[in-house]
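$ ./design --mode recover --in tokens.txt
reading tokens...
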């Protein structure tokens, strides 16, 4: 039903966090496969992906990636992002009744400070991006990134929250102090 796709570069720890949050979807049979598109990582990203059973690609054409996805729906995520409890049901419900792309809601407990939210656009993948494989196949072009694919219009909100990757990085930096 669902293929998860992420792009990474030296995101070993973030990749591990995201993959651990996806286990619930794999256990319930919703996640069919995970594809990690690497941009020259020199850390252990490939080992993390391999240990989790992901396809780890170091060279690819985005059209071929979309075509090779096993799921009928694609969930594009940033390494480090963590869908919170209930995400599997929200995705299944959305897919059952909608054909439109969707995003998660930002986690209420992980919001940017007010003045950082004001007048700032979100990154295209900050809240994930759920899209049907059919829709993605019709719009994808060679040379596109996942962020380019996620700039589509007509996006709905799913009733599930996600901790954005930036929040995970900020928390790790704060804990290191």
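writing sequence...
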């Amino acid at each position: 039903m669902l293929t998860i796709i992420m792009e990474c570069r030296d995101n070993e720890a973030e990749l591990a966090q995201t993959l651990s949050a996806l286990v619930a979807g794999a256990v319930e049979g919703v996640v069919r496969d995970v594809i990690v598109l690497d941009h020259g990582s020199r850390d252990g990203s490939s080992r993390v992906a391999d240990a989790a059973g992901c396809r780890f690609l170091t060279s690819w054409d985005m059209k071929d990636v979309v075509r090779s996805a096993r799921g009928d729906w694609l969930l594009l995520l940033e390494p480090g992002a963590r869908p919170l409890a209930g995400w599997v049901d929200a995705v299944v419900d959305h897919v059952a009744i909608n054909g439109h792309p969707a995003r998660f809601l930002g986690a209420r407990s992980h919001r940017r400070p007010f003045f950082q939210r004001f007048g700032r656009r979100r990154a295209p993948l900050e809240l994930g991006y759920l899209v049907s494989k059919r829709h993605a196949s019709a719009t994808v072009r060679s040379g596109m990134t996942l962020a380019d694919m996620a700039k589509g219009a007509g996006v709905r909100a799913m009733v599930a929250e996600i901790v954005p990757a930036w929040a995970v990085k900020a928390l790790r930096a704060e804990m290191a102090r």
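exit 0
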